[in-house]
Amino acid sequence: xxxxxxxxxVFPIASETFITTEMKALMHCGHEVEGICFERSHEDCxxxxxxxxxxxxxxxxxxxxxxxxxxxxxxxxxxxxGWQAVQFAFTxxxxxxxxxxxxxxxxxxxxNKSGCEHIHAHFALCxxxxxxxxxxxxxLRVSFTSHGSDVYKSPSDLALKLQYADFSIAVCKRMQIDFxxxxxxxxxxxxxxxxxxxxxRANESALKLQKLLYLGRISETKGIxxxxxxxxxxPPSLRPLIDxxxxxxxxxxxxxxxxxxxxxxxxxxxxAVSRVWVQQNSSQYAAxxxxxxxxxxxxxxxxxxxxxxxxxxxxxxxxxxxxxxGEFVNSDCAFISNSSDPEDLARTLLKLLVALDxxxxxxxxxxxxxAVLGPRIHELQELLKHPKPSEIIESKLEQGYRKxxxxxxxxxxxxxxxTIFQNCQVLEDV
Length: 430
What we know:
This protein has 430 residues and is α/β, with parallel strands linked by helices. 45% of the residues lie in helices and 15% in strands. It folds into two domains: 3-194 and 409-423, Glycogen Phosphorylase B (Rossmann fold, 3-Layer(aba) Sandwich); 211-407, Rossmann fold (3-Layer(aba) Sandwich). It has 18 helices and 13 strands.
């Protein structure tokens, strides 16, 4: 099995456990994986990532004088693929060419020293640019995975990187289509991020709180402002209690909005939580609410791991219909609201609360709600007629768990990636 160099901009980052989950999945498939980062953060690594953290190489430890040992290899490879490293460095616009070449040589030194046979970078930014330069100097194959912000928010020479890489990994089908539109000749595979099913296990004996959980960064694409607006549309007697577990750039704005909209008694901000907190506490909540949305410029979450975590934990789920979400969750698995639509989100919250047996509604109460939530509120009539609404929850939980087990486990992700790395080709169903 090939030894693979994994190139990461900064390590560790608490919100990027999908990278270490992927690395461990490949190790379980028999690959050696060499982690290389450009910078060490001051954060503690997540539980379970200690071995990767201890072995992670900080590229700053490679000194310029060490590069002398590469001279012979660079000379031999230059007329094969080495010239492409220089061509790429002077064609791209994101990094000063000479700085990129020096960083690429440092990466090439360590990759050569450690005996890696393939270089894979995460995020189509400086890490991918450096990986391409290093791989071309060494005559190795190179690839990268994108995660959304590097494609839709702040792309850098993306079409060029797709052209120079041997292949790329998209985490959702929408991204694969966009990649092929950017660079029609690019070789792109879709491999969604996987979930460590041994870590995210449902605690079905946990005492359930009459609370919902919002889990994730408090940022624009997570839809928290729409959630607050949706709560404000509901009468106080029908508002659920929601814990907001996370931190982010919109926290202060969200806290102020909660006060301005008069829903302070329904919303509790917990602050940032760890991966272990999620594992130990999520099962206590009645359901998870994740109202993702698309923002200006078409920016959205391309493969929210937290949705898959909710499915793995067998938590009832309310989310939205953004394109990337729809690829792996639908109304069979979750309560689905229109994205960026607080009114529909409020209606969907009521459906969830009725199914959970948190509230009771009848024809008269629906008529009273129509003035605020529109005529579609009467869609709840079908749910009210159901003899056992809890069966709807049970069905969604079972469908969701089966889906994440069969399609989105880290084991499945590792097998797919291993096939690609070994052969640079995949089965039709990948």
